[in-house]
Amino acid sequence: MELVNRTEIFEFFLKGFSGYPALEHLLFPLCSAMYLVTLLGNTAIVAVSVLDVHLHTPMYFFLGNLSILDICYTSTFVPLMLVHLLSAQKTISFVGCAIQMCLSLATGSTECLLLAIMAYDRYLAICRPLRYPVLMSHRLCLLLAGAAWGLCLVKSMTETVIAMRLPFCGHRMVSHFTCEILAVLKLACSDTSVSEVFLLVGAILLLPIPLAFICLSYTLILATILRVPSAAGRRKAFSTCSAHLAVVMLFYGIVIFMYMKPKSKEAHISDEVFTVLYAVVTPMLNPVIYSLRNKEVKEAARKVWCRSWTSK
């Protein structure tokens, strides 16, 4: 009987904001504009990091990876969400749901590790400046970034396969605007404890542990900066990591707020709107923060822009 129920599932219905048509019409232009800014801003960061030789450093290599992550993360759900905001038929195929679930889990998980790697890079640059070129070699940068992408992809594929192999029965309405794994698990009609254990272990490995590593790195960085004799030297040292610190505070601050606030028995539409805005706003703000807080990025962008115009 379980096999029959499982094989009959060809698509899911994404509830989203179907009960609030006026809100859908408001979110469509808002999310469209923010998604466009996300694509343009992060693409610009990647382009500048590649085209300007002065930015061929570990810091900007990881920043380029972060920008690619933001593009991939938002692209896993925003285009389909925009279509659903204007459509009465809000469906996604079973395979499409699995792909969306896996990619969103992978990109979100990778960002947690990448922010920790970037904190380690800033620690070496400020606390071990003389040995920094040796310690943070190009090979190590590739290894760290590749390991973060690869491990999180394997983890997410495992979680997705376990979740999607469960028998689904009853209604196929996912109470979310994407195939979020916890929302999909609520539709399963068998024991989901194995999937929940995997998710719990993954959450522990990718949230508190990287955050603790980041806090330790910045504690050591702050201690080193305070020992710098001149005020100008302290400002210069802090400016090299202020943008990354702002991104970390934004990312983890919102995540902690979302998951640590008291849960009500009934879902509120305000929580869903906040989730949408968090998922779209954070990737949009990352390139803005790095552009405003980093003189090297602004100067490199100006050079690339002037070079492109003079070549015409």
TrEMBL record:
Transmembrane segments: 26-48, 60-86, 92-120, 140-158, 197-225, 237-260, 272-292
Example of a GO biological process term: detection of chemical stimulus involved in sensory perception of smell
Gene3D superfamilies: Rhodopsin 7-helix transmembrane proteins
Pfam families: 7tm_4
Record keyword Methyltransferase present: no
Location within or outside the cell: Cell membrane
Primary localization class, coarse: membrane
A cellular-component GO term for this protein: plasma membrane
GO molecular function: G protein-coupled receptor activity; olfactory receptor activity
InterPro entries: GPCR_Rhodpsn, GPCR_Rhodpsn_7TM, Olfact_rcpt
Keywords: Cell membrane, G-protein coupled receptor, Membrane, Olfaction, Receptor, Sensory transduction, Transducer, Transmembrane, Transmembrane helix
Domain G-protein coupled receptors family 1 profile as annotated: residue spans: 41-290
Keyword Transmembrane carried by entry: yes
UniProt membrane topology term: Multi-pass membrane protein
Family of this protein: Belongs to the G-protein coupled receptor 1 family.
Role this protein plays: Putative odorant or sperm cell receptor.
Name of the protein in question: Olfactory receptor
Species, as recorded: Canis lupus familiaris (Dog)
